[in-house]
Write a structure and sequence with these properties.
- The protein is mainly alpha-helical and 100 residues long.
- It is built from three helices and no strands.
- It is found in: Cell inner membrane.
- Keywords: Cell cycle, Cell division, Cell inner membrane, Cell membrane, Membrane, Transmembrane, Transmembrane helix.
- Part of a complex composed of FtsB, FtsL and FtsQ.
- It is a single-pass type II membrane protein.
């Protein structure tokens, strides 16, 4: 009777070993699932970035408002006849010493 128990337990362990530690084990499935979730998150970020770039390209092709905005913000350009005002924040002005 004792040898039968040992044989059955050994057989059960032999059958369970690949499930837990083999090539297609639960641990490997868990690792692959984690990698899949990380890859999906990366893909979602890239899809959002691509959509923003696509919208910007369409806007640049169709209208002049986006081109004008870029010229103002990145190049500091102004239209003919416009007056440019630059307001400085006195608390951020490093040329004046702070009163003590």
């Amino acid at each position: 009777m004792r040898w039968l128990t040992v044989t059955l337990v050994s057989l059960i362990l032999a059958l369970q070993w690949p499930l837990w530690f083999g090539k297609g084990s639960w641990l490997r499935v868990w690792q692959l699932d984690k990698q899949l979730q990380e890859q999906r998150a990366t893909t979602q970020q890239l899809v959002a970035r691509n959509a923003a770039l696509d919208a910007e390209v369409r806007d640049l092709k169709q209208g002049s408002d986006a081109i004008e905005e870029r010229a103002r913000n990145e190049l500091g350009m102004i239209r003919n006849g416009e007056v440019f005002f630059q307001l400085l924040d006195p608390s951020k002005n490093p040329s004046r010493p702070s009163p003590r």
